[in-house]
Write a structure and sequence with these properties.
Blueprint lengths: L2 E6 L4 E5 L8 E3 L6 E5 L15 H7 L2 H5 L9 H10 L4 E2 L2 E2 L1
Length: about 100
């Protein structure tokens, strides 16, 4: 169910969940009880794995075939990522690996 953002004339913002077909254009502000209009906000994408673990990093740090076969555990935390980098002799410099 999507999360919608609303703002009243006093600048109070509130977020509410509605089904896509049921979302009203105006709701009551939870702070001042004035009308709050739906505003356009930045959407998000929910992913199964951490967003910092992109495909290029994964290819360097873990063998995806070994993960699928259960021979190697997938990287699921930043701590595991740093340990795997250390094992491979890599270090993070800014936003890139060297």
């Amino acid at each position: 169910m999507p999360l919608y953002e609303f703002e009243c004339k006093r600048g109070h913002r509130t977020e509410q969940m509605f089904k896509m077909d049921d979302c009203p254009a105006v709701v009551e502000c939870c702070k001042c009880r004035a009308f709050a209009k739906k505003v356009i906000s930045i959407g998000g994408i929910e992913r199964q794995e951490p967003t910092w673990l992109n495909d290029q990093v994964r290819e360097v740090l873990q063998d995806t075939d070994r993960v699928r076969q259960g021979k190697e555990a997938p990287i699921e935390s930043r701590k595991q990522w740093k340990e795997r980098m250390k094992e491979r002799g890599l270090e993070e410099v800014g936003a890139r690996m060297v």
